[in-house]
Task: structure prediction
Amino acid sequence: MSEFVPGADDPQRAHPGPGCPSGADHDREVPDVDLLTPLKIRGERLRNRIAMSPMCQYCAENGMANDWHLVHLGSRAVGGAALVMVEATAVTAAGRISPLDMGLWTDDHAEPLARIARFIASQGAVPAIQLAHAGRKASCEVPWRGGAPLRPEEGGWSPVAGPSPVPFDEGSPTPEPLDPQGIHEITDAFAAAALRAVSAGFRVLEIHAAHGYLLHEFLSPLSNERTDQYGGSLENRLRLTLEVAERLRKRMPDSMPLFVRISATDWVDGGWDVEQSVVLCRQLKNRGVDLIDVSSGALTPKARIPVARGYQVPLARKIREEAQIATGAVGLITEAPHANEIITGGDADLVLLGREMLREPYWALKAQHELGEEPVWPTQYGYAVKRRTK
Ligand SMILES: Cc1cc2nc3c(=O)[nH]c(=O)nc-3n(C[C@H](O)[C@H](O)[C@H](O)COP(=O)(O)O)c2cc1C
Result:
């Protein structure tokens, strides 16, 4: 049963702007859109181009979402983001980064997530969820306790899965290479979790193929040393990610957008790079993927990453231009004018914010104000915040 939320589904919050170009406007040199222009992708209409990036909260018990997740995600929907993405949600129990990760490996997991999706949607935002398998980076302590690999006697599990017996780092467990049956089970698990997510009311799905987790491990020659049809050539290394995307697309309603987050480069010579990413993204597009959420790194601790303001934006631009697919830009984007330039300059179609939205849940409302528009407050706040008493 859905709970009563006064002011929910306020049409002004859901549809503040007049225009609504689709995500397919990437072929224009300088799109006639800005950060506050709605974005149409398949049957979904995002009220602006500001999204909350998926961020693990490490506080789910046995994979179950709880009130923390409702308030954490719900606040950003109240705060004006157009799309709110649930953190990396494990498609199998063994695919969790930590024992406290969110999961969706049984039907029971869908129930508390449905409440969250409902609330996000009631605030005019689109509920999205990222589906993930941590691969060789599974079974770790939560980051605020150091993030080290956990042995079974410490609450972890063994073995962790990967493409090849190549550990992430010294002291990391050696992953057990997935056999063909294991690979099949992984694609099945992604497909089953996707169906549960759809039935829970999520309206965008994102496949996590970034940050050194399982799918990225298959993509990168640094972690994939297989000699079967899932390793070696670029075509073979792409296979698992493409199969997962294909399975999801077939299970999802046609009107529902599918995103894929990639690490566009490993930032290591001889590793996965942006040229290979362009090839992957062209093939993802052919399989019905709508947007590439362009992150980078985290496959190997040896990477030298040139971290700076908006440092991943050029990767989003290159993929947008060369694979002719809509992209999301993420990474050290904190200011509204900068986010706006990313859209007006044609670098990306969507801007995702991570840490800055942790600092400021109302970032999107403030961006509206800063960019010269009247913020579209929730009904419950709108009349009050406009009335100044001093
Ligand atoms: C606490 C935290 C948890 C994160 N969890 C995820 C996750 O679940 N999935 C993911 O793809 N990225 C995750 N990330 C990366 C963010 O989504 C984002 O890409 C990154 O923080 C860079 O953006 P920012 O500079 O705006 O924070 C996480 C980042 C943080 C800070």
User: Anything to note?
Assistant: The chain has twelve helices and 13 strands.
